[in-house]
Design goal:
It comes from Haloferax mucosum ATCC BAA-1512. One of its GO terms (molecular function) is acetolactate synthase activity. One of its GO terms (biological process) is sulfur compound biosynthetic process. The strands form 3 sheets. A 6-stranded parallel β-sheet has the order 2-1-3-4-6-5, sandwiched between helices. Strands 9-8-7-10-11-12 form a 6-stranded parallel β-sheet. Helix content is 37%, strand content 16%. It is of the alpha/beta class and 564 residues long. It contains 25 helices and 18 strands. It has 3 domains: 3-189, Rossmann fold; 198-360, TPP-binding domain (Rossmann fold); 362-545, Thiamin diphosphate (ThDP)-binding fold, Pyr/PP domains (Rossmann fold).
Length: 564
């Protein structure tokens, strides 16, 4: 067999069910062998959508999502998903190539990207985004590199890796024996779970037992670890209120008696106040970035007054932003299981304060029958069809903050948002990927700007027989940017042509419906849930509802407001 056949064989052995990609360059060799395998090829309209689909697959399943495509485009359009994967800790493997032209490579032929004078340097581009990348030059190096790419994508803090195929190596015969040898795919990609030391666990348990007002901050690392039960067990053991970071939303059911909501600059006021009042904070799988910490507002988290226990898979993250009193270094599930076994505590504070904090999920606007639809009410209509067998994907912009605040998730793994690099256009291909990977109903929510960027993903859903619901919160503008204006029209490029998304959906073979009242939106969402085709709901919302004015945290406002 040649190397490309051996690569496909490795992908099958490693349990890869689908590859997201676009044929081109020497990756065509791989695409030529996929039809003879058990692997499904998902080919959207461009590498951007494929990269987001691969990222979401990794985030949702914990197994690397595979992106395949020609080098110049995986290194440009396809960087969107890879950047999100790097910052959102999603396991992902990009299989690409440098479009080499053999003896012509040193004189910069068309599309060449191996780094010779006059050409692009794909390795440098990928080095800036991936955890690790490889540029093998022989058949055996190529297979070993693929194995290492899968291993490093999930080892420690997950993230994207890449392998750049060399033209000759892909087409050359794969040797039966080699020095050094190529080991079995499953054995070579095996990883082990890290756990904290007994001393650190004992110190953390002692601090939580002594606390009168303990709060757990549950971050994206809980999604990555799958430590949902362990968060709940730890909260129950120490009677601690639980809040989440933005990327950690739905790591803990927001209807739970100890749930307090989402912290951060545009998070829940109640959740932010909970953290400020705490005397002990257990931070799990959250790096505490500026958005989550209200840009380090002085009254929000106070290391001199609060005991901070920081649990993270990466020792560099523990105590990175705020000095930690105890570090629990290891997999989140392992750390929390050890904590539950080490102690317990009780208090009269957490349940009462969490219940009060959850009031932030509601506002009078959520019940408004106004036309155009208020975004708060639109989110509540979405919430009515969300159950434990539903996944919501949220885009960037105002829409994600309305969702973050007013969608009260009923179970874990019911909400995922673009919050790593936070690129627009993420929610729609992510929804298609989630529908392919699960048997759950999926609702992708975006503004009209973000939806239009990747709306050809609707066609991909039709082609593959899945039926997500796509909700377009349509204000015919870049709403968040438009609302940053100091006066009407002082920022260029914020207004959009009023696109007919119903006709767009129908052109792709999907169902389209335009809604202008809350009742119409509720009916459309219910109908979409049972529709065998994807449904695009063009929901006309009130563009005058100012997200920042409505949702800005008081702590965030205290340090000067919008940092964009």
């Amino acid at each position: 067999m040649d190397t490309s056949e051996r690569l496909v064989e490795s992908l099958e052995r490693l349990g890869v069910e689908r590859v997201f990609g676009y044929p081109g360059g020497r990756v065509i060799e791989l695409f030529d062998d996929i039809p003879e395998s058990s692997i499904e090829l998902v080919r959207p309209r461009d590498e951007r959508e494929a990269s987001v689909m691969a990222e979401m697959h990794g985030r949702l399943t914990g197994q690397p999502g595979v992106l395949a495509g020609q080098g110049p485009w995986v290194g440009s359009l396809g960087l969107i998903g890879q950047m999100e994967a790097r910052l959102a800790s999603s396991p992902m493997v990009a299989i690409t190539e440098a479009s080499e032209r053999g003896n012509y490579s040193t004189i910069a032929p068309y599309q060449q990207s191996r780094g010779d004078y006059g050409g692009l340097e794909l390795p440098k581009i990928l080095d800036a985004v991936t955890k690790e990348h490889w540029f093998p030059r022989t058949p055996t190096e190529t297979v070993r590199s693929l194995q290492l790419a899968f291993k490093h994508a999930v080892a420690g803090r997950p993230g994207p890796t890449a392998i750049i195929l060399d033209g000759d190596a892909v087409t050359d015969d794969y040797p039966d024996e080699s020095i050094p040898p190529v080991w079995d795919d499953e054995r070579q990609t095996r990883t082990w779970t890290a756990a904290p030391t007994a001393r650190d666990v004992a110190a953390a348990a002692e601090a939580l037992e002594a606390a009168e007002r303990p709060v757990i901050i549950s971050g994206n690392g809980v999604h990555a670890s799958g430590a949902y039960d362990e968060v709940a067990e730890t909260a129950e053991a120490y009677e601690a209120a639980v809040v989440t970071s933005y990327l950690g939303k739905s790591t803990f059911p927001e209807t739970h008696r100890l749930a307090g909501g989402v912290i951060g600059s545009f998070g829940h006021e109640g959740a932010n106040q909970l953290v400020s009042e705490a005397d002990a904070l257990l931070v799990v799988g959250c790096r505490m970035n500026p958005m989550d910490t209200n840009w380090q507002a002085p009254e929000f988290i106070r290391p001199d007054e609060q005991t901070i226990i920081h649990a993270d898979i990466d020792p560099r993250n523990a105590g990175w932003v705020y000095p930690a009193d105890v570090g629990l270094i290891g997999d989140a599930a392992e750390s929390l299981r050890e904590l539950v076994a080490a102690g317990d505590a009780d208090n009269d504070w957490a349940e009462t304060r969490a219940r009060e904090a959850r009031e932030s999920f509601h506002a009078p606007e959520c019940e408004s029958d106004a036309v155009p639809i208020l975004p708060q009410r639109a989110v509540k209509e979405i919430e009515r069809v969300v159950d434990e067998n539903t996944i919501v994907t949220a885009d960037s912009g105002n829409n994600r903050f309305w969702l973050l605040n007013y969608l009260q998730t009923p179970a874990v793994r019911t909400y995922f948002g673009s919050g790593g690099v936070g690129g627009m256009g993420w929610a729609t291909p992510a929804a298609v990927s989630a529908a392919l990977a699960t048997d759950k109903h999926v609702i992708g929510v975006a503004g009209d700007g973000g939806f239009t960027m990747t709306m050809t993903s609707v066609e991909t859903a039709v082609e593959h027989g899945v039926a997500p619901t796509f909700v377009v919160l349509n204000d015919t503008s870049l709403g968040m940017v438009r609302q940053m204006q100091r006066g009407p029209g002082d920022i260029a490029g914020v207004e959009f042509h009023d696109t007919d998304f119903v006709r767009v959906a129908e052109a792709f073979g999907a169902t389209g419906v335009r809604v202008e009242t809350p009742g119409e939106l509720g009916d459309a969402l219910s109908d979409a849930k049972t529709n065998a085709l994807p449904t695009v709901i063009d929901a006309r919302i009130d563009r005058e509802q100012d997200m920042v004015e409505t949702l800005q945290s008081s702590f965030y406002a205290s340090v000067g407001g919008l940092h964009e």
